[in-house]
User: Fold Adenylate kinase from Arthrobacter oryzae.
Amino acid sequence: MTRMLIIGPPGSGKGTQAERISERLGVVAISTGDIFRANVKGETPLGVEAKKYMDAGDFVPDSVTNKMVRDRLGEDDVDGGFLLDGYPRTTAQVDYLDGILATGEQKLDVVLQLTADDEELVTRLLGRAKETGRSDDNEAVIRHRLDLYHGQTEAVVAKYAERGILTQVDGIGGIDEVTDRVMQAIKAAQSA
Ligand SMILES: Nc1ncnc2c1ncn2[C@@H]1O[C@H](COP(=O)(O)OP(=O)(O)O)[C@@H](O)[C@H]1O
Ligand SMILES: [Mg+2]
Assistant:
C-alpha cells in the first residue's frame, strides 16, 4: 500500500512518470489535469467552469478542485493506494488533503518532486503543443503556469520538506533514465 504525490513544474514529466509508477506499484494514478480535461471534452458543468481557468493557465479555484479530489479519493479503486499528480498545488489544497486523509486515518508515504529548469520546460512544452495541441501550451500561458508554480506550488513542496517526506528527482534526461531515478527514490524513501 503506497500513498504518494508527484509534484513538479508544467512539462517536468509528471504524467509520464506517474503512469509508469502506477503500473509498477499497482496504485491508481489520479491526475487532476486529466480529470479536468476529460470534463472539458465532455462539456460537463465542471468542465465548462474549469476551462476558463485552464486556458489562461490559472489554477481552477480551490473550492472546485478540492471537492473533485475528495470525491475521486472516495472511490473503491483507491483502496490499494494512490499516486496524485497535479494536486496539491496550493498550501490551501495541502490543508484540505490533510483533512481528507486524517478522516480515514491515512498518511502519505512519499512526496516526489520532479525538477527541471524553466528554459528546458518551455522548450518541451512548445514541442508538446505541436503534437497534442493542448490549449494551454502556448508561450505566454506556459510562462504564466511556471510563475504560478514558483509563486505557489514551491510553498507546497516546502511544507512536505519540513515534514521530512520529500524526495527530489532530477527530471532532466531520457524518460527511462528518469523512471529509474524515480523508482530508486521511492524505494529509498520507503525503506528509510
Ligand atoms: N490542483 C489543481 N488546482 C488548481 N488547478 C488545477 C489543479 N490541477 C490541475 N489544474 C488545472 O489544470 C491545468 C492543467 O493541469 P496539468 O495537466 O496538471 O498541467 P501541467 O502538468 O502541465 O502543469 C492547470 O493549469 C490548472 O488550470
Ligand atoms: Mg500533466
